[in-house]
Amino acid sequence: MFKTKRIRSLDGEPLRAKDNVPPADLPTQVQVDGRPLTLRARYDLLLNKPLGVVTAHQDNLHPTAYALLSEAPLFKELRAVGRLDKETSGLLMWTTDGTLLHRITHPRYAVPRTYHVALERPPAPLPEGLTLKDGYAPEITEYAQRDPQSLHPALHRPDEARSFASITITTGRFHEVRRIFAALDSHVVGLARVSFGPVELPTDLAAGAFSPYDLKAAFAGMHPRPK
Ligand code: URA
To answer: Is the pTM here over 0.85, yes or no?
Structure first.
């Protein structure tokens, strides 16, 4: 392809196979047969995960969140940053950067995740140190009752919802938010993640849509907790 001059710079100069692009110069654009092509070393995005899809690359029973990204650059290398339940909507970040993914999700970094919650009945007051049935004590850094009009549009609010809240936790245990509200004698009927560390789910990103986002820059100032 190089010999036949099919690959050119944007201003039309034929590129040679030995014209290496230093990683620091990526992303950059070239033309292949006159069509623009972006060369990238990495890619990150935000997905507004809809209800009913699982956070998986493959699943025999359910549609996957991954399948919604098939048009994304570097699709094959994208990995989800944490998981959301099938019946949770909202912010699901994806990256090709395994090191960054590991840091963002590692408990030592204690990255806060905020959820908006629809409840079947008002929860009991949150006690000082809440312990779940299995003995686990979630770290809840913010908690508030909410007016329906202050909630993110990504939250599904079924008719049976009688109470609304927002909650911020620093871990991502299995069914953690659902189990917290079960311990408060309530029941979650709608759950949406609206932020993860410094990243907020844009209110105009439609369910099932994704948008590019530089997670490396967003999490650049993140430090682990001292041991
Ligand atoms: N907590 C839950 O219960 N479910 C999620 O999907 C995320 C947090």
So the answer is: yes
